[in-house]
């Protein structure tokens, strides 16, 4: 197929520009910060949005910046129909800097890989789609539909950017998001984020965790019974680091869609405190109803389905101040009933004098594998890679595919690659990303016909 050869050659010419542009974006600490700036999610995220749009303008796109700073987009082509490509520029916090081999907000290239927060999630992939379209533009390929690359700014938290986009803008007729794995994701679990709250009637004071959707890799404890706690941690085999004041309990970071791949430092601390007779409402709840079970079967029983697998339950943050608060991220199987699960949870937390407060909910999605969108994307992926074995998959992840109808997650990570989003030393293999760029160019070309 002649298109493969032409596109591959054009991407070869664009590689250096892609690397330079991604370096620009990685340097920006686009972590949510609802500060005193006029921007909804902080000056860092706004800088990343402005920079991404400036890159697109330089490449010849028409661009638009939402005056309120929630989103922006770059567009080419004409026609009534629109193909939407959705990605995000916000990133999760770096976490413990000492766990990084390279500075998280400085693009570092070593052995053919680029390291930095956002390289894999999602600055690297969304920029790859920009350069994929640029390759088509340089080759003068016709766009019979408009191609719009939509930049979100609040994906890692509450998706307020997409809510505003839907209120203000035209919806694409079809699309994809480069924020998962190849070949593509046809089903995504429901995502429920909530707080469990109660009045703190103890003298305990502590905070830990970075985000709902990240398994906490550490938590610092400074309080009563520290010597007993240290002995209990050793007895349980839980890693910790003594500090001048207190102890830091260690876990292993992971994304909340796969909490079984991590070690939750908060739950480990609660287990150890409970066993040395240090109690509070949230400590007792975690020990008695959750512990290390990422499926929360003591609360819900066995909840799973054939399409999307089991329910996942991640305690992302804890706070004991005037109130006790647990921040929980729960991934709900496609066929499960959210209201039934919430009602069950409300009953379970009553004896602990905790209350349920919903923060955000994204309903599950399911696009049949025989749909034209999926058939087109799978055909391009298979012809480009020669991989006829990998099948469309379901996921516990929450991608922007949920933001519009007829949209799926499509790459940019290949089946044999390591998924390192939200982890220290996040990186991309540059040649693999260039291969993804080739796939995106071919897919966009086919979808635009």
Automatic annotation (TrEMBL):
Annotated GO biological process: L-arginine biosynthetic process; proteolysis
Entry keyword set: Dipeptidase, Hydrolase, Metal-binding, Metalloprotease, Protease, Zinc
Requisite cofactors: Zn(2+)
Pfam families: Peptidase_M20 (PF01546)
Superkingdom of source: Bacteria
InterPro entries: ArgE/DapE_CS, Bact_exopeptidase_dim_dom, M20A_pepV-rel, Peptidase_M20, Peptidase_M20A
A GO term for molecular function: metallopeptidase activity
Gene3D superfamilies: 3.30.70.360, Zn peptidases (3.40.630.10)
Family: Belongs to the peptidase M20A family.
Name of the protein this chain belongs to: Peptidase
């Amino acid at each position: 197929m002649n298109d493969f050869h032409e596109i591959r050659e054009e991407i070869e010419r664009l590689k250096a520009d892609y690397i330079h542009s991604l370096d620009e974006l990685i340097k920006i600490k686009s972590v949510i910060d609802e500060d005193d700036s006029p921007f909804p999610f902080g000056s860092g995220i706004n800088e990343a949005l402005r920079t991404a749009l400036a890159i697109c303008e330089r490449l010849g796109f028409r661009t638009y910046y939402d005056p309120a700073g929630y989103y922006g987009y770059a567009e080419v082509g004409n026609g009534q129909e629109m193909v939407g490509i959705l990605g995000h520029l916000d990133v999760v916090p770096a976490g413990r800097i000492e766990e990084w081999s390279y500075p998280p907000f400085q693009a570092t290239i070593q052995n053919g890989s680029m390291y930095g927060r956002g390289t894999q999630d999602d600055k690297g992939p969304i920029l790859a789609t920009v350069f994929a379209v640029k390759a088509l533009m340089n080759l003068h390929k016709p766009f019979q539909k408009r191609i719009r690359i939509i930049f979100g700014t609040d994906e890692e938290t509450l998706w307020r950017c997409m809510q505003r986009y839907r209120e203000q803008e035209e919806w694409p007729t079809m699309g994809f998001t480069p924020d998962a794995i190849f070949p593509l994701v046809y089903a995504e679990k429901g995502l429920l984020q909530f707080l469990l709250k109660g009045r703190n009637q103890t003298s305990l004071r502590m905070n830990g965790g970075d985000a709902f959707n990240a398994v906490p890799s550490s938590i610092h404890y400074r309080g009563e019974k520290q010597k007993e706690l240290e002995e209990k941690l050793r007895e349980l085999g839980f890693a910790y680091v003594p500090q001048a004041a207190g102890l830091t309990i260690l876990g292993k970071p992971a994304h909340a869609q796969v909490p079984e791949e991590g070690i939750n430092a908060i739950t480990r601390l609660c287990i150890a405190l409970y066993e040395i007779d240090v109690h509070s409402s949230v400590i007792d709840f975690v020990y008695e109803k959750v512990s290390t079970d990422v499926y929360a079967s003591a609360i819900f029983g066995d909840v799973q389905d054939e399409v999307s697998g089991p329910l996942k339950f991640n305690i992302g943050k804890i706070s004991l101040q005037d109130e006790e608060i647990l921040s929980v991220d729960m991934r709900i199987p496609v066929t499960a009933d959210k209201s039934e699960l919430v009602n069950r949870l409300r009953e379970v937390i009553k004896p602990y004098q905790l209350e349920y407060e919903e923060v955000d909910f994204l309903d599950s999605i399911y696009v049949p594998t025989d749909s034209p969108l999926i058939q087109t994307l799978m055909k391009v992926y298979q012809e480009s890679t020669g991989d006829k074995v990998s099948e469309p998959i379901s996921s516990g992840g929450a991608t922007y595919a949920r933001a519009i109808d007829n949209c799926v997650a499509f790459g940019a990570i290949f089946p044999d690659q390591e998924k390192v989003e939200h982890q220290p030393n996040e990186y991309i293999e540059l040649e693999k990303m260039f291969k993804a760029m080739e796939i995106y160019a071919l897919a966009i070309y086919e979808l635009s016909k």
